[in-house]
Amino acid sequence: MRYSALRVLKEALTGHQGWRPLWRDPDPRPSYDYIIVGGGGHGLATAYYLAKTFRQARIAVVEKGWLGSGNIGRNTTIIRSNYLLPGNEPFYEFSMKLWENLEQEFNFNAMVSQRGIVNLFHTDAQRDAYRRRGNAMLLAGADAELVEAGQLREMMPFLNFDNARFPIKGGLLQRRAGTARHDGVAWGYARGADARGVDLIQNCEVTGLHMENGRILGVETSRGYIAAKKVGVAVAGSTSLLMQLAGLRMPIESHVLQAFVSEGLKPTIPGVITFGAGHFYVSQSDKGGLVFGGDIDGYNSYAQRGNLPVIEDVVEGGMALMPMIGRARLLRTWGGIMDMSMDGSPIIDRTPIDGLYLNAGWCYGGFKATPASGYAFAHLLATDRPHETAKAYRLDRFERGYVIDEKGAGAQPNLH
Ligand SMILES: Cc1cc2nc3c(=O)[nH]c(=O)nc-3n(C[C@H](O)[C@H](O)[C@H](O)COP(=O)(O)OP(=O)(O)OC[C@H]3O[C@@H](n4cnc5c(N)ncnc54)[C@H](O)[C@@H]3O)c2cc1C
């Protein structure tokens, strides 16, 4: 079924009897050509592009819970391509370009809103670093502008300019960045994949990987054994657990990241803002809630909920940046499990097991990568060659010393 204004009108006039579920609910078949483990944004996007762009068939996505129950439905919805390093920037800009046409492409309203992002700077050294990053973005075909404090004061008068411990000197602005409705993205990809024959199998946990002579033959699941020619793993925070089933130790740690939303307020915040003197970022949802977040909790965990000390730390950052936030009431907080890689950058690669492929290491930033990650992973699965923009995302880069340390923080996952 194609969605259109005409369809909405027709359904309104005929009692909304014609709407269909977004996807089927099939039982697993005995075998597939491709099994994607993980029905999050990356797994669903991978299946979608495998079927649509790479014209592959006999594809299943197996998800232990319901589609979109992981980080894709828990993030703070920010999309951007303001990266510095050559390993990252072209990939994220490719993703940005896919975002810009996504809703038309999969015919689903994912509320992609290019409302802009400003990374604030508070020192001259930080201005230099952001200028450099902006230039790297321009070289990769992205947009970037350096704005000074006066201009920001007009755009965001509620920021603490006059009495701040860390005075705002300006910001790096990317106007094409913004937000998208995270679960809408999962549903759009799921619907598009299902329409092209992909089986989306929910409540189906992968509990074992069947391998012989260094080759994958299928997966053991809570709904029985399923044979497969190729298996792609995209399970975000559960990556280490899943890959352990293949006897592989990952350069990844799992950490909790929390997010927060306030009660609904009148339109206040024009785009996305990140604080440069602490870890705090904020935007406003279309319902009016201030959506914000900060640091990971800082210890290894598989719990999808966080602790109070980080809540205190995040709201301290918010108060330092925009004291008016102290008058808003907090509505909800929640957490997701992050797949923190050692250098803060992702992995899209083959593994030492033939037919087993890995998509992981997204840290805080995998939502914005969803379209490009799905596309590049599908490219790898279908052709056995890395996509042009994802060539640096090798699994063995840590042992070879080719890390992509965007933050310059060193091989310490809790700092990325
Ligand atoms: C609080 C928070 C805020 C964030 N904010 C942003 C942001 O603003 N911008 C941004 O770019 N990124 C953000 N992120 C990061 C982003 O959400 C993730 O990097 C990205 O969603 C991860 O990819 P995914 O969508 O495929 O993961 P997920 O949605 O977590 O998908 C993985 C799936 O695998 C399933 N699974 C696990 N084990 C198994 C198994 N054994 N068998 C079958 N299925 C299994 C899980 O149930 C899950 O559904 C944020 C994350 C969090 C938690």
Protein topology:
Blueprint: H1 5-13, E1 31-37, H2 41-52, E2 59-62, E3 78-79, H3 89-106, E4 117-121, H4 124-139, E5 145-148, H5 149-155, E6 170-174, E7 178-179, H6 182-195, E8 199-201, E9 206-212, E10 215-221, E11 224-233, H7 239-244, E12 252-264, E13 272-274, E14 281-284, E15 289-300, H8 308-321, E16 330-341, E17 347-350, E18 356-360, H9 366-383, H10 397-400
Parallel strand pairs: 1-2, 1-11, 2-8, 4-13, 11-18
Antiparallel strand pairs: 3-7, 4-6, 5-6, 9-10, 10-11, 12-15, 12-16, 13-14, 14-15, 17-18
Helix pairs in contact: 2-6, 2-9, 3-9
Bound molecules: flavin-adenine dinucleotide (FAD).
Flavin-adenine dinucleotide binds at residues 37-43, 62-65, 69-72, 74-78, 205-206, 234-238, 242, 257-259, 293, 336, 362, 364-368.
Domain FAD dependent oxidoreductase: 33-380
Pfam family, one: DAO
Protein name: Sarcosine oxidase subunit beta family protein
Summary of the model, kept short:
The protein has ten helices and 18 strands. It has two domains: 5-77 and 182-251 and 343-415, FAD/NAD(P)-binding domain (3-Layer(bba) Sandwich); 110-179 and 253-341, D-Amino Acid Oxidase, Chain A, domain 2. Helices cover 28% and strands 26% of the residues.
Task: Describe the 3D structure.
The chain contains 10 helices and 18 strands. By secondary structure, it is of the alpha/beta class. 28% of the residues lie in helices and 26% in strands. The model has no long low-confidence stretch (mean pLDDT 96). The chain has helices at 5-13, 41-52, 89-106, 124-139, 149-155, 182-195, 239-244, 308-321, 366-383, 397-400; strands at 31-37, 59-62, 78-79, 117-121, 145-148, 170-174, 178-179, 199-201, 206-212, 215-221, 224-233, 252-264, 272-274, 281-284, 289-300, 330-341, 347-350, 356-360. Strands 1, 2, 8, 9, 10, 11, 17 and 18 form an 8-stranded mixed beta sheet that branches. Strands 5-6-4-13-14-15-12-16 form an 8-stranded mixed beta sheet. Strands 3-7 form a two-stranded antiparallel ribbon. Helix 2 (41-52) packs parallel to helix 6 (182-195) and helix 3 (89-106) crosses helix 9. The protein folds into 2 domains: 5-77 and 182-251 and 343-415, FAD/NAD(P)-binding domain (3-Layer(bba) Sandwich), CATH 3.50.50.60; 110-179 and 253-341, D-Amino Acid Oxidase, subunit A, domain 2 (D-Amino Acid Oxidase, Chain A, domain 2), CATH 3.30.9.10. The site of flavin-adenine dinucleotide has 39 residues, from helix 2, strand 12 and helix 9. This is Sarcosine oxidase subunit beta family protein. It comes from Pseudorhizobium endolithicum. InterPro entries: FAD-dep_OxRdtase (IPR006076), FAD/NAD-bd_sf (IPR036188), SoxB (IPR006278). It is found in: Cytoplasm.
